[in-house]
Design goal:
Layout: E1 8-13, H1 17-28, E2 33-39, H2 43-52, E3 57-59, H3 62-67, E4 73-76, H4 83-92, E5 97-99, H5 107-120, E6 125-127, H6 135-146, E7 152-160, H7 170-189, E8 193-201, E9 214-221, E10 226-232, E11 240-247, E12 251-253, E13 262-264, E14 267-269, H8 276-279, H9 281-296, H10 305-324, E15 328-329
Bound molecules: nicotinamide-adenine-dinucleotide (NAD).
Nicotinamide-adenine-dinucleotide (NAD) binds at residues 13-19, 39-42, 45, 62, 77-80, 82, 100-101, 128, 130, 176, 276, 280.
């Protein structure tokens, strides 16, 4: 498929906040990677990002862009509801795809992606769980896999956004934010989620009383581990994401954001990032770099379609638990052979 074996030509669908980060990071990876096409529902937006990425074709239709012969691999960063359909289109064309999370907005659609990829017979789908490329999270995972903390028994995750979108629903909070933490739990503990129990409250009247902007999610995992995840999307003060794995001999956790410590007026302070772009800047670069390197070498790496499906199943169970007030067991399908080489491929 590749015209130049040492270079990969990528098309990006959706160049809003996330897609622009990916397009710019891909462009910066020159000469191993070339952004050859962009598509966005907003043509002016597409033109603007195309101009920043060199000589790039602008498409008005995502299916046309994916089908175009010069596009060898695809990044999907359009809204969540487009992900499954466009990923399936990439699989039909046998083109590798980095699809932003969530892989789909229903487990039924995520399963269709898994089944289509099994039909192709090789891994082409990667899901944008960028924490797997964050040095802090990788440090925790390395400590756990080396056995530094003994047998892991508990994961504590926290995820605070200063603000969310107007009109955000409880379901949006789960599928847009908590889904990262659900994936982190599976990846850091190397166990599948078997049961979820989610509680939520509204702390931000502007969102309406039915929106749980603060959610506490408890998990029971297949190897007997427990997890608690706090997701607070109107925390106001800044953007913070972290995790601690508690083991039988110790614990490993991410450290607060770096930056200068200032001592003044009998107080000590250090900066906290204001948004996901700043917090995960390095992770996004590593994620896209490792994806394109693997493609040039003809292999797959990173969170795959199975990880995408399992996180969507867990997210659906969280929404059902918030609605019913009851714990929910996950009904996972049998894991196809294609995805049986461990819970996840380690980045790098
Ligand atoms: N992994 C992460 O850390 C992370 C962070 C932010 C967003 N995301 C994901 O990235 C995706 C985009 O989020 P965002 O924050 O960039 O949103 P955004 O609103 O900033 O950008 C979305 C872009 O898609 C375009 N668009 C709308 N409908 C489209 C369609 N049918 N086809 C093509 N383009 C279309 C919009 O015009 C816009 O430019 C979402 O799925 C989101 O969940 C992931």
């Amino acid at each position: 498929m590749q015209s130049d074996p040492d270079r990969i030509a990528v098309g990006v669908v959706g160049v809003g906040g996330m897609g622009t980060v990916h397009a710019e990071n891909l462009h910066a990876l020159n000469p191993g990677v070339q952004v050859v096409a962009v598509m966005d529902a907003d043509p002016a937006r597409a033109e603007e990002v195309a101009a920043r990425c060199g000589s790039v074709s602008v498409f008005g239709d995502a299916h046309e862009m994916i089908a175009d012969d010069k596009v060898e691999a695809v990044v999907i960063a359009s809204p969540d509801y487009t992900h499954a359909e466009l990923t399936l289109e990439c699989l039909r064309r046998k083109k590798p795809v980095l699809c932003e999370k969530p892989l789909a907005t229903t487990a039924e659609d995520a399963l269709k992606v898994v089944e289509a990829e099994v039909g192709v017979g090789r891994k082409l789908v990667k899901v944008g769980f960028m924490r797997r490329y964050d040095p802090q999270h990788l440090g925790v995972r390395d400590a756990v896999t080396r056995g530094d903390v003994g047998r892991p028994v508990l994961l504590k995750g926290w995820h605070r956004n200063p603000e969310t979108l107007p009109g955000a629903t409880s379901e949006f909070v789960v599928f847009s934010s908590a889904i990262h933490d659900l994936d982190s739990a599976r990846w850091l503990l190397e166990q599948e989620i078997e049961e979820v129990y989610a509680h939520g409250v509204n702390t931000e009247p502007a969102l309406g009383k039915n929106t749980c902007d603060l959610q506490l999610i408890q998990l029971v995992l297949s190897g007997g581990c427990l997890a608690t995840i706090e997701v607070y999307v109107t925390a106001g003060y800044g953007y913070e994401v972290g995790a601690e794995v508690v083991g039988e001999r110790g614990t490993a956790h991410t450290v607060p954001a770096g930056g200068v410590v200032v001592r003044r007026d009998r107080a000590l302070s250090r900066p906290i990032e204001g948004n996901w772009r700043a917090r995960f800047q390095t992770a996004y670069v590593n994620e896209i770099e490792q994806w394109t390197k693997a493609l040039i070498n003809g292999r797959a790496e990173g969170p795959d379609a199975w990880d995408g499906l399992m996180s969507v199943l867990a997210a659906e169970a969280c929404v059902a638990s918030l609605r019913s007030g009851l714990p929910q067991r996950l009904q996972a399908p049998e894991r196809p052979v294609l995805y049986r080489q461990g819970l996840s491929e380690v980045a790098g």
